[in-house]
C-alpha cells in the first residue's frame, strides 16, 4: 500500500500526455472539426498539460484518406493549421504504428516540423521494426517513446527481453500499455517494478497508457504514479477506443502540482465532449467491454457488438467464453 505522502507530494518529473485526438479518433474515424482541435489545444495549454498527441502519422498507401479524418495522418501542415508556431510550453506528439507508417518518407526532419515527439507503437513480434523507427526519428531530431502493446497477453520473460532491447535505443520513455483494459492495480505494481528497474538501468523513463474496460484506467494510472511511473496518458471525458482511457479531468484533479488546472478540463468537457456524445459518437464503459477486459481479449468483438447496437449482453458473454 502506498504511503499517503506519495499521493500528496509533487513529483516534478511527472508529465501529462493528452491522447484525445489520437485514441479518441479511433471512435469517430478521426473526424474532429478544426474548432474542436483548436479548442483542445488551447485547453491543454491553459490546463498545464505537457504533451498533446495529435493523431497518427498513418501511411496513405494503406489507409484511404477519403475514409478518415485528417488526424489519422496528422501531416505537419495540418498540425500547423491548429497550433501555428506553438510558442507555448505544450509539446506536440504524434503516434506511428510499426508496419502502418511510411516513416522514412512521411516523418520529416524535426527542423521542418511542429512535432516534438514521435510515439512508436509496437507489438512484441515487431520489435526490430520499432527499433528502426525509433532510431530514424531520433536521427531526425525528435524525442521518442515506445508503447509495447498488449503486454497482458505476454510472458514476463518476453516483456523483460523486449525492455532490454527497447531501452538500449535512444528513446526517452517506454510505456506500460494495458491494451485490453484487463489489468488490476496489483498487477500494475508488479509490472511497474519490472519496467522501472529496466528503465533505470538504461537511464529511461516509464509511462502508462490505460484502458477503462473494467473502470480501472484511473486507478491503474494513479497506482503507477505511486510506483514512480512519470509519463501519464489521459483523454478528456475518457474518449478512446471502446471503453476509453483514463479521464484527463480525473488525472489533473488528482495530481497535486499547481501547474495542472483541472477547471479548464471541466470547461472543455462541458463545451465539447458532452455535445460530441449527444451527437451520437459512442465510447465509454459498457458491459461488452467489461467482458473482453475480464477475458483479456482484444475489444474488436465488443466494438462490433456496439456498432451492431446489440443489447444481448449475456449472449455476448457466453459467445466470448465459448470461443476456442
Which helices and strands appear, and what pairs or packs with what?
Elements lengths: L3 H5 L6 E4 L1 H4 L1 H4 L5 H14 L3 E6 L19 H8 L7 E7 L5 H4 L10 E6 L4 H13 L3 E6 L7 H12 L5 E6 L6 H18 L2 E6 L6 H10 L4 E4 L13 H7 L7 H17 L8 H8 L5 H8 L5 H9 L3
Short description:
This protein has 324 residues and is α/β, with parallel strands linked by helices.
Describe, in plain words, how this protein is organized in 3D.
Helix 4 packs antiparallel against helix 12 and helix 13 packs parallel to helix 15 (313-321). This protein has two domains: 4-278, Aldolase class I (TIM Barrel, Alpha-Beta Barrel); 287-321, no CATH class. Helix 5 links the parallel strand 2 and strand 3. It starts with a helix and ends with a helix. With 324 residues, it is an alpha/beta fold. 44% of the residues lie in helices and 14% in strands. It has 15 helices and eight strands.
Order of strands across the widest beta sheet? 1-2-3-4-5-6-7-8
The helix/strand series, from N terminus to C terminus, equals: HEHHHEHEHEHEHEHEHEHHHHH
Oligomer: single chain
Mean pLDDT: 96
Q: Count every helix, treating DSSP H or I runs of 4 or more residues as helices.
A: 15
CATH evolutionary superfamily of the largest domain: Aldolase class I
CATH class of the largest domain: Alpha Beta
Total domain modules: 2
Compute the gyration radius: what is it? 19 Å
Shape: globular
User: And the CATH topology of the largest domain?
Assistant: TIM Barrel
Largest sheet: 8 strands, parallel, barrel
Amino acid at each position: 500500500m502506498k504511503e499517503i505522502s506519495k499521493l500528496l507530494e509533487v513529483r516534478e518529473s511527472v508529465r501529462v500526455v493528452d491522447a484525445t485526438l489520437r485514441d479518441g479518433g479511433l471512435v469517430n474515424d478521426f473526424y474532429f472539426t478544426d474548432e474542436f482541435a483548436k479548442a483542445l489545444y488551447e485547453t491543454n495549454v491553459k490546463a498545464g498539460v505537457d504533451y498533446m498527441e495529435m493523431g497518427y502519422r498513418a501511411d496513405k498507401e494503406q489507409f484511404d484518406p477519403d475514409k478518415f479524418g485528417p488526424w489519422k495522418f496528422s501531416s505537419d501542415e495540418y498540425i500547423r493549421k491548429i497550433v501555428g508556431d506553438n510558442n507555448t510550453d505544450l509539446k506536440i506528439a504524434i503516434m506511428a504504428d510499426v508496419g502502418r507508417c511510411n516513416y522514412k518518407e512521411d516523418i520529416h526532419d524535426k527542423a521542418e516540423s511542429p512535432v516534438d515527439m514521435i510515439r512508436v507503437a509496437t507489438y512484441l513480434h515487431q520489435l526490430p521494426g520499432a527499433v528502426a523507427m525509433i532510431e530514424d526519428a531520433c536521427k531526425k531530431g525528435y524525442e521518442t517513446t515506445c508503447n509495447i502493446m498488449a503486454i497482458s497477453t505476454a510472458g514476463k520473460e518476453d516483456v523483460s527481453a523486449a525492455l532490454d532491447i527497447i531501452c538500449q535505443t535512444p528513446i526517452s520513455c517506454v510505456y506500460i500499455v494495458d491494451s485490453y483494459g484487463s489489468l488490476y492495480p496489483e498487477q500494475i505494481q508488479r509490472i511497474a517494478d519490472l519496467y522501472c528497474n529496466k528503465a533505470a538501468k538504461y537511464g529511461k523513463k516509464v509511462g502508462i497508457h490505460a484502458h477503462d474496460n473494467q473502470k480501472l484506467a484511473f486507478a491503474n494510472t494513479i497506482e503507477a504514479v505511486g510506483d514512480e511511473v512519470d509519463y501519464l496518458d489521459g483523454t478528456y471525458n475518457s474518449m478512446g477506443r471502446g471503453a476509453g482511457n483514463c479521464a484527463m479531468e480525473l488525472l489533473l484533479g488528482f495530481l497535486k502540482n499547481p501547474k495542472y488546472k483541472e477547471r479548464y478540463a471541466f470547461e472543455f468537457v462541458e463545451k465539447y465532449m458532452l455535445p460530441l456524445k449527444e451527437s451520437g459518437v459512442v465510447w465509454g464503459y459498457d458491459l461488452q467491454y467489461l467482458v473482453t477486459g475480464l477475458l483479456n481479449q482484444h475489444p474488436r468483438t465488443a466494438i462490433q457488438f456496439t456498432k451492431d447496437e446489440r443489447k444481448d449482453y449475456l449472449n455476448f458473454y457466453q459467445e466470448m467464453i465459448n470461443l476456442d
